[in-house]
Structures are given as C-alpha cells and as structure tokens.
C-alpha cells in the first residue's frame, strides 16, 4: 500500500528552516484604574450563533455556570452587550 505521508517540497522545507519566532512587543492595554468585572454565565450558549459562542469563549466563559473576572473597558463592555442574554455581572473588583 502507498504511504499516507505527504512529500515535502524543497520550497516548503526551505521556508520552515528560515521561519523564526517573533517576540511580541505589544504594550499591555491598561483598563480603567484596574477595575475588573466578575461575570457569570447563567444560560448555555448551545443553539446560539457562532459569533455569540466565540464571544463567550473570549470572555473566558467555557461552560454553563462558569465565572470569570474581566477588565472593565470599552471592548469588554461591547462583548457583554453582545451576550447580555446569557451572562450576569456579579460585581466589581478593585
């Protein structure tokens, strides 16, 4: 029988050798005075559109009744607005 391994072309092999890891030089985005929000997912994302499920994952909510602490900034507030029917804000942390 024929082997299931694919042949690597010389071009791809050369590309793999020359690829270097890049170090991240991005600055950390500071939140408003270090405040954080505690959120809890009280309803499942099953049956929701993929965009809503990806937003839940980005917030750190992987399953029903999960809790997460997220920074209180504009982007997080926008994500919470997108999934407001599935999550509740428990409170704030300093």
Fill in the keyword field for this structure.
3 strands, 19% strand, elongated
The number of helices is 3
Uncertain residue ranges? none
Structural class: alpha+beta
Question: How much of the residues is beta strand, in percent?
Answer: 15-25%
The total strand number stands at 3
Shape descriptor: elongated
Rg calculated over all Cα atoms: 21 Å
Query: How are the strands ordered across the major sheet?
Result: 2-1-3
Q: What level of helicity do the residues show?
A: 25-40%
What does the largest sheet look like?
A: 3 strands, antiparallel
Please report the distance between the alpha carbons of the first and last residues.
64 Å
Oligomer: single chain
Mean pLDDT: 83
The H/E string reads HEHEHE
